[in-house]
């Protein structure tokens, strides 16, 4: 480990903390429609409502909100599916790529509509520019906006009193897209173009190498897709190598910017939450929990990657840091990024629901793999996706105050709202859904021949590849451990199921909790009220997240990265 | 080496790398041979017949029908509303 490596992590943490407050306020104003920009663009916004036949003043209860969301995404999946199947007939296909196979098209459509962006395909050899722009990029915007609006609906549940409604899905979706995602994406894309990311509709370029071979350099409208890929928590790369590709992530500055974009909205929403419920300290408490888990994960991964790989050391290869090389485990990492930046990027990618990668997670040390899996297994509450991280964290808050209520023999409360049986039932339904699909589907894949045909490695590492795939899918992360050939009907369809369940079967009970809470009155604060803005509550919430996540997945982790770590120490690898 | 690295980074050759690795310890010449043999016009390796659009859309419809039924299942689970009045501390 080097001081420069720790400095990278510290600078990133400081920069991301600095944006929490201003962006949190901006998001709140965007959703309320009270900012200067919003006033200026309001005629256009209302024109969109008139065009779509929507009454923005009409509020929805949680069932109406959930139905609107489901129908909207069903339409999105069908459109993206048709675009891929018919891309050979559509324009902007300079490489004349053929139609995508049905099972792969379904997997990709579900993947991007659920904000997962699991990619069983390689963008540059599978999708036309039209499919990338009108299909993938559009869904990146809309699925991200959906996460934010669900979080806002839950926040309103805590903030409103005796209300039957939780907002208007169409209004929220439009405002998040227009006022939050589009401006950030536009500015971010221009910055990336400045850094060297291509933005062109021209065909791939043919080059002749020094050996005289012909090489085809893929390019396209990359910058515009790259930014929304990052801020949306989507992570689906234009190229197969994702952010390890020099055309997606050309410089060190671009790398830092990409990590900041991944966390941007997720962290800012904690402040939006605090402002909406009238106590910013509540938001900072949630941010503190995220920060502790993130810093701990980053430190463990950096340490694990920076220490010498015993297998390489046994070959008498020098792994110490010097002016010529980064230290530690460099397999699967870009030399230009090194160990520290790659470790940080991997942590950011899995702690959020983004799933972009600038190094191959399959080549990380087993303990690092454990943390990467753990980041996703705790329901991605360590910042998480835009919105989905916050509503996941609030679900854990419900469990934490419920547990605290049981300990002191008092009806649990949070922000003056009593947490009763119905809320706890729906919370547990939302929290148990992803683990159920991860563990059951990973178990099925490890016994069926179709599942066993996927991993490239035997033993615990092969199991980790399977477990990582389903964890990534159900947690709507989308990053790949690599090493798993997932473009088969079995994996395409089973991963589609995991992504669908991990997104929509969680959102429905979350909206239900929002509706239940909005209908409640507020209980005045008394001497017996548990303070939820101090270090005591931060500790309680941290314990709840770690224990619930740990107990649920520990047996599976023991079969994968844990046993691999110990066998590696004995000189045995897979 | 540099050329091979660039080829790796701009094309879908990861499957090929893993494929070669499965055959035990590839050396760089093997990997390079795979690169040139494929002539960079790569499509995902498929070893099965394509499935039908109808089947895919039917599965999608079934999944959404289940999700909508799930809303009503949730409604059923929270019925009747909590008996405890909200304003009792």
Structural write-up:
The complex is a heterodimer of chains A (574) and B (89). Chain A is mainly α and 574 residues long. In chain A, 64% of the residues lie in helices and 2% in strands. Chain A has 19 helices and four strands. Chain A has helices at 3-32, 36-52, 62-85, 102-113, 123-126, 129-159, 169-195, 222-231, 252-276, 280-306, 310-313, 338-351, 366-377, 388-408, 421-445, 449-452, 459-474, 489-518, 535-569; strands at residues 205-208, 214-217, 413-414, 417-418. In chain A, the strands form two sheets. Chain A has a two-stranded antiparallel ribbon with strand order 1-2. In chain A, strands 3-4 form a two-stranded antiparallel sheet. In chain A, helix 8 packs across helix 9 (252-276). The longest helix of chain A has 35 residues, at 535-569. The model of chain A has no long low-confidence stretch (mean pLDDT 91). Chain B is mainly α and 89 residues long. Chain B is 61% helix and 0% strand. Chain B is built from four helices and no strands. Chain B has helices at 2-10, 14-22, 28-38, 53-77. The radius of gyration of chain B is 27 Å and the shape is rod-shaped. Mean pLDDT of chain B is 60; it is low at 12-47. At the A-B interface, helix 3, helix 4, helix 5, strand 2 and helix 15 of A face helix 1, helix 2 and helix 4 of B.
Give a short summary of the structure:
The complex is a heterodimer of chains A (574) and B (89). In chain A, 64% of the residues lie in helices and 2% in strands. By secondary structure, chain A is mainly α.
Q: What topology does this entry show?
A:
The complex is a heterodimer of chains A (574) and B (89).
Chain A: H1 3-32, H2 36-52, H3 62-85, H4 102-113, H5 123-126, H6 129-159, H7 169-195, E1 205-208, E2 214-217, H8 222-231, H9 252-276, H10 280-306, H11 310-313, H12 338-351, H13 366-377, H14 388-408, E3 413-414, E4 417-418, H15 421-445, H16 449-452, H17 459-474, H18 489-518, H19 535-569
Antiparallel strand pairs in A: 1-2, 3-4
Helix pairs in contact in A: 1-7, 1-9, 1-12, 2-7, 3-4, 3-6, 3-18, 4-18, 6-7, 6-8, 6-14, 6-18, 7-8, 8-9, 9-10, 9-12, 10-12, 10-13, 10-19, 12-13, 13-17, 13-19, 14-15, 14-19, 15-17, 15-18, 17-18, 17-19
Chain B: H1 2-10, H2 14-22, H3 28-38, H4 53-77
